[in-house]
Specification:
Length: 281
């Protein structure tokens, strides 16, 4: 297998974000103590399960990517479907090992549920439009809960729930906008995205609304006095990004801008993760 293609197909930045979200969830749950081994295992579990989901998505999306993203590893011929499947199960296997080593049956259940949702999205739910977007966004919230479980803290603490909710809203918004940039390929596969079923204008409104909901939910910890001054100072930056993106997609509703917005949203989500962990200190 082409090593560069293998690295490219897993989107290592996205996988690292999921792994980091697990660590954030652990910190935010306020466990009695933070142990290095469970923390490292949690990061690796998030990383490798995310890698599995990325590869599976590209396998099912190969015909769409031949239109939307012909330079990706599979449609470009740098990685075969068989090779991609083998690589996906390798990543899944490593993820299963790291979550089993956490010695927490609930954690194993959550990780396997994440893997199942990832497969279900790629196999069928993606065609359902907004329902598929919600499944993907849920996969951004699940790592917070997983981190709380392996850390042994309060997984239903108000702060943890609100941070997971913020990640969920921003994830739905990004997925809706992302589909605006992929309309040609999505139509080929019969995907009923908001952009295709309701039009680009309505898709922009839905995407912008979820971006703004993420901003509102990010301030709830401050209103309820659950976060510290570090969070108060830091949350301004990701919120400014998402407010800008909301107005940008409303102002210019074409595929090129949607592509820019979805890439910038990823940066906003990364900054948000850093702010979340600062708020838990």
């Amino acid at each position: 297998m082409n090593p560069r293609a293998g690295l490219e197909i897993i989107r290592p930045v996205n996988c690292a974000m999921i792994g980091f979200a697990v660590i954030v969830g652990e910190f935010v749950s306020k466990p009695p103590r933070i142990s290095l081994v469970p923390t490292v295992l949690g990061f690796l579990t998030g990383f490798f399960f995310c890698a599995f989901s990325m590869i599976v998505n590209d396998v099912y999306d190969v015909e769409v990517d031949r239109v939307n993203q012909p330079g990706r590893p599979i449609p470009s011929g740098r990685l075969s479907i068989h090779g991609a499947l083998v690589f996906s199960f390798l990543n899944l296997g490593i993820g299963v090992v790291t979550t089993v080593l956490s010695l927490s049956p609930p954690a194993v259940g959550i990780a396997l549920a994440y893997a199942f949702l990832s497969w279900l999205y790629s196999y069928r739910a993606k065609k359902a439009g907004i329902a598929g977007n919600i499944i993907v966004a849920s996969s951004l919230a699940i790592p917070f809960v997983y981190g709380g479980v392996i850390g042994g803290g309060g997984i239903f603490s108000s702060l943890l729930v609100m941070m997971a909710l913020t990640a969920f809203f921003s994830g739905v918004g990004r997925e809706v906008v992302k589909a605006m940039a992929d309309t040609f390929g999505d139509e080929k596969r019969g995907i009923r995205s908001v952009a295709l079923s309701q039009g680009m204008r309505n898709a922009a409104v839905v995407g912008a609304t979820f971006f703004l909901l993420a901003v509102v939910s990010s301030w709830l910890p401050l209103v309820l006095r659950l976060a510290n001054w570090i969070y108060m100072a830091g949350v301004i930056f990701p919120d400014a990004i998402f407010i800008f993106l909301a107005f940008s997609i409303l102002r210019k509703r074409d595929g090129a801008n949607a592509y820019r917005v979805k890439r910038t949203a990823l940066m906003g989500m990364l900054v948000g993760l850093i702010v979340f962990i600062g708020g838990a200190l």
